[in-house]
Specification:
It contains four helices and 14 strands. The protein has one domain: SET domain (Beta-clip-like, Beta Complex). The strands form five sheets. Strands 1-2-3-4 form a four-stranded antiparallel sheet. A three-stranded antiparallel sheet has the order 5-11-10, with no helix packed on it. The protein is an alpha+beta fold and 208 residues long. The radius of gyration is 19 Å and the shape is globular. Bound molecules: S-adenosylmethionine. The site of S-adenosylmethionine has 16 residues, from strand 4 and strand 9. S-adenosylmethionine binds next to strand 4 and strand 9. It comes from Edaphochlamys debaryana. This is SET domain-containing protein.
């Protein structure tokens, strides 16, 4: 189906998808960047994804139009440009390697501390981390790909495990990262960091 824009009313919105708990969250903190209040314009960007743009803030988010099982691939991704430095739009694929995503609309995927997708930068596939239903917002955990973000922000995902300030994996402890899936690049960087930290610790230094 070709891309088409549909204006949704507030009534349609609340009747459609938001469970009561999410509605409270949306009312409390989403107006600034999430297109869940004041209505939104929806654009079908593919047969499985829809971009919603908030009428009030102009911020975008990407929503699923299809069901995906955990582990399923939503799409392959590539890059329009490769930068040596991060921007708020880039995804890190290696040391000094930051891509501007292709297709471009993938950059509307917001961060959540309880993500449902992962940009796997080893395979260049966008993977579902758990079951995704049509109408679910697609979110990834930004520190799963980003070591040191150019534009840290205070997270508004409103999830129970929300970490607050999101600045990249370099700013998070193992405990904070928990069991979240990370790219191979970030997992390796953490191993290097923690190996460096333990060899620096006084208990490991030979003072004899
Ligand atoms: C690549 S953009 C994501 C899409 C963006 N919302 C848009 O309008 O196109 C990344 C920016 O979105 C905002 N953002 C994404 N997830 C967020 C979250 N959970 N809490 C607060 N801001 C978020 C931050 O400003 C971040 O720098």
């Amino acid at each position: 189906m070709s891309a088409q824009a549909i204006a949704h009313s507030m009534e349609e919105l609340s009747a459609k998808a938001l469970p009561a708990s999410r509605k409270v969250c949306a009312d409390k903190c989403a107006a600034e960047y999430r297109p869940l209040s004041s209505g939104f314009v929806s654009t079908f960007v593919s047969d499985w994804a829809e971009r919603r743009q908030c009428n009030l803030s102009g911020h975008n988010a990407l929503y699923a139009r299809k069901q995906f099982k955990a582990g399923e691939v939503l799409c392959e991704f590539g890059w329009r440009d490769l930068l040596e430095y991060p921007t708020y739009l880039t995804v890190q694929t290696g040391e000094d390697k930051h891509i501007l995503l292709a297709p471009e609309w993938l950059e509307h995927i917001n961060h959540s501390c309880e993500p449902n997708v992962l940009f796997n930068t080893a395979t260049f596939k966008l993977e579902a981390l758990r079951e995704v239903q049509p109408g679910d917002e697609l979110c990834f955990f930004y520190p799963s790909t980003e070591w040191a973000m150019s534009s840290p922000f205070e997270c508004k995902c409103c999830k129970p495990s929300c970490l607050g300030l999101i600045a990249g994996a370099s700013q998070l402890s193992r405990e904070q990262l928990g069991a979240r899936r990370l790219t191979d690049f970030i997992a390796n960087r953490l191993d290097e960091r923690d190996a460096g930290a333990s060899s620096d610790s006084p208990s490991n230094s030979n003072s004899d």
